[in-house]
Amino acid sequence: MDNDEENLVFQLQLARQLVEHLEAGNSNDAANVIRQLRIPYERELFDELGKLTRDLHEALNSFRGDSRLSELTRDEIPDAKERLNYVVTMTEQATHRTLNALDEAMPVAESLHERSQQLVGHWQRFRRRELSVEEFREFARALDVFFDAVGEDTERLRNLMSEVMMAQDFQDLTGQIIRRVIRLVHEVEENLVGLIRLSSARMDTKATKSVVTHDAEVASSHGPIVPNTHDVTADVVSGQDDVDALLSSLGF
Amino acid sequence: MKILIVDDFSTMRRIIKNLLRELGFNNTMEADDGSTALPMLKGGGFDFLVTDWNMPNMEGIDLLRAVRADPALKNLPVLMVTAEAKRDQIVEAAQAGVNGYIVKPFTAETLKEKIDKIFERIDG
Predict the structure, then answer these.
(1) What is the CATH number of domain B2-123?
(2) Cα atoms in the Cβ-side hemisphere of radius 13 Å centred on A243
(3) Where are the domains of chain A?
């Protein structure tokens, strides 16, 4: 406050001098006073400019130093491509597994249907008492064969339907992999937006901060292991047998 | 026997539900992550928990810890069925008190074997 008042008194003094000099026609002295009046404003302008320059310098430095962008382009994007390739492979395998099971099941179902239709024909003739003894014996033998086959074939169909069901487990696994890639795409997007903000004329200190924040999600889970990615460096089990061995070594 | 199946993918919940039905367990319920599962478990009546690990909001490992920390639930058998395959994660789950651990993709036989083993231990 005191400082402000002093400044005000000083400025008022200078203003009076300026009027005096101008009235006296002392243009040199008047120009001198005007310069003195300007000094504090110029200092403020230079201070502000200096601060802006420093901010820009720091923002560029922090972007270069901490930026995830180079890491993302160097490691994670090729990694994500491998993950998506793996998704293509897995979905292809699941589709083949499903179609193979159906290829096997369809003829079984068709044959069951045909044989039962034939027997229905014989059965109706039997009900109408049109079968000879010899024909009846043959029909009874055919029925025996059919009953055996029905048990086997329906069991086979049940197994194939289970196979179709289990083939659908790809959706969970590929879903987890795709979600991971979506998180990466989101992170790249954020970094690119930050880069655009940095390079645009409207410097905003808040914007520079968001450049270096990356997904702070600290999940303990990782998702399915994908071949040909960073996952292979992790210490992972190769399958259920490996899990069982590890657990039994822990006293399970 | 009432079983709760927890997985964020409805496809996987259906697969596990179907497999359990084939094994003769018809009384199952579903939850899509730990935070919806825990109140259901606390509501009581469940004899067995099958849970995934990688889920939004509350992960399977945290659900397992919450179950073990709850006096009413601490003895509930928990089977983890997950794609998480790191050795230290399996050790972590074992230390948190899991009763069985199955890595995805898994087979119907594996599920049956692990469930049988869990109940053999409990009965024995």
Answers:
(1) 3.40.50.2300
(2) 25
(3) 1-66
